[in-house]
Write a structure and sequence with these properties.
The structure is a single chain. This protein has about 200 residues and is mainly α. It is built from ten helices and no strands. It has helices at about 5-25, 35-40, 45, 55-75, 85-100, 105-115, 125-130, 135-145, 155-170, 180-200. The radius of gyration is 19 Å and the shape is elongated.
Length: about 200
Amino acid sequence: MGVRKARAAETEAALKDAALRQFVERGYLNTKITDITAAASRATGSFYDHFASKDDLLQALLVDLHGKAHDRFAQEDHPPHDLTDRDQLREHLAVAWHLMRDNRPIMIALFEQAMAAGPSAGRLWRRLIEDTQVLREHLEHLRETGHSLPGDPELVAAAMGGMLSMLAYALLGDDPDSGRSDDEVIDTLTRLLLHGLAGPGSTSA
């Protein structure tokens, strides 16, 4: 990599890191591009060498997050999860929860961006569909193998993702009174969703 490309990559990384810090401190909607460039110790004009807008920067951060998620799931060498099995369901929820926790600034930004756009824009629904693709594939596998689901796999996966993302936004903040450990959240979600996926008579819980 040449010197110019190396400097450009360094600036892009600095802008991304600064944006993540600002999204936590100010919230996505309240963060201005000048806040990001100041935190990155870069000229305001340098921002537009890399991103067309704040939304474009967030999209780049989301691509990075999807890459991390793909790498994490790619480490698992197994057939599709049986989400009616307690341990497999919990494992999947734990991976998703920890990804959200470890990327809290992006979760904050995505949630606030979608809320600001409003439901008529359809942005939140499209995001749920895209982000829950792996869950949907597992649910489709269950249906193909004869399991009865509470609804259409796409809708069920989106409902699960919505529950996770809302909890992440509410609980992964700085409020010392939230008092909820990762294990408590994951175990509660596992029991709740297992009841719906495997049925109230399931012995897997």
